[in-house]
Amino acid sequence: MYVLLVALWMCLPIAPLNPVEEDTLAAINLHLSAGVSSPNGVTSVGPQLSASYEMLVIHPLVIRGAVDYRYGELNSRLYPNGDLHTTTFALETFYYRGTNHLTGYIGLGAVYAISGFSLSSASADSLLDEEQVVDVELAREFGYRITLGLRYRQSYSVEAGVTELRTDLIKWGRHGPGEWSRRSQPIRTGGFRLTFGYLLPLSRF
Q: Fold for domain 26-203?
């Protein structure tokens, strides 16, 4: 079975005859992409923007640093509703294989998410009346991301990624002069994303 899978892989157009000559990316790339993030039961579908700096370490390994922006809404009955703006910093490495015409790759990396949360009017009024909560925020947290991608003619890309990110939703309550309370609730804000991008080579071999 393994022999058959390897044979099929080698028959694909992303298995070059001369790997280094036909399968070498630009030494440095600026990768710009846009797409959507899927709902995960807590957050809604929303737009995703990303910019990354990629560097070819050694064939066929690439490292990249990325900054992502995602907008969504918390719309679960388990949590307060509102607008969620998330900025994610990522450090990833990926393994690629292909030709100058078509390249496939798989990547893994760590992410650090900073989220800004704005309560909806209805949720703000409800929390104030029932729990004396005056503000809600999401804690900054580390997570990880797995990415699968394809590149066409070294310039266009399509990526599918899964981010695992679990953080805390923090409620700040005010119960009197100088009396504050802090309560946290675990929440999962990661999910699946699909993006389309364009690569600008900053340096070539």
A: Porin (2.40.160)
Is the preceding omega at residue 60 within 30 degrees of 0, hence cis?
A: yes
Q: Is 71 exposed, middle or buried (0-12, 13-18, 19+ CB in 10 A)?
A: middle
What's the pLDDT band for 5 if we cut at 50, 70, 90? very low
Nearest in space to 32 (alpha carbons), one of 68, 71, 60: 68
The single-letter DSSP state of residue 11 is H
Question: Which region among 2-16, 41-55, 141-155, 175-189 has the lowest average model confidence (pLDDT)?
Answer: 2-16
Task: Give CA–CA dist 160/37, Å, rounded.
Answer: 10
Residues recorded for the chain: 205
Residue 136 has pLDDT above 50, yes or no: yes
What CA–CA distance (Å, rounded) separates 20 from 56? Answer: 12
Give the helix ranges, DSSP H, for the chain: 2-11, 19-22, 121-131
Find, among 166, 11, 169, the residue nearest to 79 by Cα.
169
Which residue in this structure is represented by tokens 């050694």? 58
Find the angle CA(42)-CA(144)-CA(38) to the nearest 5 degrees: 35
As a whole number of angstroms, the distance between CA 18 and CA 184 comes to 55
SS3 135: strand
